[in-house]
């Protein structure tokens, strides 16, 4: 792909994204667009899911990484590339480098999920585990670039990366020409910037809405003051969008082309992940379901037809297990209770009988006998129950109280 200027920080235009689309032909998949009947019923208009979770490497990141590395000069390719990532960007850089015959070194945190480390190695990258947090990993990668001359591939703060991610927007317009609103998650901003620029350049009438996790929302305050600002200690289950400061390049584009940035709660994220799994039969990571979380949080505020971009599906199975349990609890389908009973034979059987009578499925039972707050003959029982929704939860608690148990939250 030949950009118009040798300056890597030149302003992007639609032709750059179209050039990236040509470059990615036969490399990145044109991912499926799936309708969601459930979300459509909530919104009152058609809702489609753009399934980048089904992209090669499991996320949209291959697009930008390939365009960035393919645009390197021969001497830069010979020096190799280096990246720092806990997951999706690592895999995108690894596969893109392998396809282009470029040596890739990827620094990952020591605690990175083993499936992501293994996948990055399998794509051909030299993986080096360094640091406990991504900032330490990033510093190590930059030091390696300075020492070796390898080209550092930033996950979002470069025009080539944004041009590659913008091809998702062009595909949306081709697959759903009647679209009126596109909802996309925002971390550093590369994907939202690319989609916003591509879509608004062709269809300025289409609304582009970005979504961030409440605990990692650096864009709203940054947009309010007109420049990127950092937030302290971003916290969210959505690692893919847990970025403490917007990228300089995507920020300028988002300022111009993205209509609005909303935030969503952790409960909304886990509920959205559960919804995608159960209703759409799609495994999506927490960052990838942020647009669905926004739709669930305020469905009537979106003008349809709506396209929600599922940006990735790389979620560690152990993390998925915890999130699903959180999502079930948020949806009133998982109930944790504590109650005190007399420590004598038959008491637990009676308790389980009450739960059986109201059709509550017991997942786990725990006992505490050594708490100084307990009486000499008392035991505290902790229950984890699968229920059928908020009304059923209330029914279960009412039945226990009616049977004489003192119930507290788990």
From TrEMBL:
<dbReference type="InterPro" id="IPR001926">
    <property type="entry name" value="TrpB-like_PALP"/>
</dbReference>
<dbReference type="InterPro" id="IPR044561">
    <property type="entry name" value="ACT_ThrD-II-like"/>
</dbReference>
<dbReference type="Pfam" id="PF00291">
    <property type="entry name" value="PALP"/>
</dbReference>
<dbReference type="InterPro" id="IPR000634">
    <property type="entry name" value="Ser/Thr_deHydtase_PyrdxlP-BS"/>
</dbReference>
<dbReference type="InterPro" id="IPR002912">
    <property type="entry name" value="ACT_dom"/>
</dbReference>
<keyword id="KW-0663">Pyridoxal phosphate</keyword>
<dbReference type="InterPro" id="IPR005789">
    <property type="entry name" value="Thr_deHydtase_catblc"/>
</dbReference>
<dbReference type="InterPro" id="IPR045865">
    <property type="entry name" value="ACT-like_dom_sf"/>
</dbReference>
<comment type="subunit">
    <text>In the native structure, TdcB is in a dimeric form, whereas in the TdcB-AMP complex, it exists in a tetrameric form (dimer of dimers).</text>
</comment>
<keyword id="KW-0028">Amino-acid biosynthesis</keyword>
<protein>
    <recommendedName>
        <fullName>L-threonine dehydratase catabolic TdcB</fullName>
        <ecNumber>4.3.1.19</ecNumber>
    </recommendedName>
</protein>
<dbReference type="InterPro" id="IPR036052">
    <property type="entry name" value="TrpB-like_PALP_sf"/>
</dbReference>
<dbReference type="GO" id="GO:0004794">
    <property type="term" value="F:threonine deaminase activity"/>
</dbReference>
<dbReference type="InterPro" id="IPR050147">
    <property type="entry name" value="Ser/Thr_Dehydratase"/>
</dbReference>
<comment type="pathway">
    <text>Amino-acid biosynthesis; L-isoleucine biosynthesis; 2-oxobutanoate from L-threonine: step 1/1.</text>
</comment>
<comment type="pathway">
    <text>Amino-acid degradation; L-threonine degradation via propanoate pathway; propanoate from L-threonine: step 1/4.</text>
</comment>
<keyword id="KW-0456">Lyase</keyword>
<feature type="domain" description="ACT">
    <location>
        <begin position="336"/>
        <end position="410"/>
    </location>
</feature>
<keyword id="KW-0100">Branched-chain amino acid biosynthesis</keyword>
<keyword id="KW-0021">Allosteric enzyme</keyword>
<keyword id="KW-0412">Isoleucine biosynthesis</keyword>
<comment type="similarity">
    <text>Belongs to the serine/threonine dehydratase family.</text>
</comment>
